[in-house]
Design brief:
- The structure is a single chain.
- The protein is α+β, with helices and mostly antiparallel strands.
- Helices cover 29% and strands 36% of the residues.
Length: 171
């Protein structure tokens, strides 16, 4: 009986210690709107300036990019040198495709601040997924086998956000 009680108390203690440790894990820096704008800028530059987004070459007007307003706070939208970003709702994107024909547009599928604890080191990180997707008009007869995207994991290093592409996909 004493052994059973001892093991139960030991297990309960371990749970309490883990809960306290998790509660005390705070990012090394609070992630701000400025940080979100910066990682959006870095991601869009990777996609457009570095041409790393899937099927970049199929984007018809590379100087004028339609960006979905999904998952985007318009006040945080960055400026990209040499590119005009036009923010449209999903409904506006569909209307444009219905009226003008099919086109590729960009969409942030995810912008997620997170806490990373690796090897006992607390780290602020932001995970960003960007997709190059087809807007298909109601009268379109084309079935597209193109488009795609990538996910970048950003970490704050020496005051700057540094990203690594962790996932790519083809639609």
């Amino acid at each position: 009986m004493k052994t059973k009680t001892y093991l139960s108390l030991l297990a309960l203690s371990a749970v309490i210690i883990n809960l306290i440790a998790l509660a005390s894990c705070q990012p090394s820096q609070k992630i701000t709107d400025k940080d979100i704008t910066e990682v959006m800028r870095l991601t869009l530059e990777l996609a457009l300036a570095a041409q790393e987004i899937q099927d970049y070459n199929l984007i018809e007007d590379k100087a004028n990019i339609v960006l979905s307003s999904e998952n985007v706070d318009p006040s945080l939208l960055p400026q990209i040198s040499g590119v005009t970003l036009t923010l449209h709702s999903p409904e506006q994107i569909q209307e444009k495709a219905d009226q003008q024909g099919d086109f590729l547009y960009l969409r942030f599928k995810e912008i997620t601040p997170a806490l990373s604890v690796a090897e006992g080191v607390k780290d602020s990180k932001i995970i960003v997924s960007l997709e190059n997707a087809w807007a298909i008009g109601k009268n379109s007869t084309t079935a597209y086998l193109s488009g795609g995207g990538f996910t970048v994991e950003y970490h704050l290093k020496n005051g700057k956000w540094v990203g690594e592409v962790t996932v790519t996909w083809i639609s």
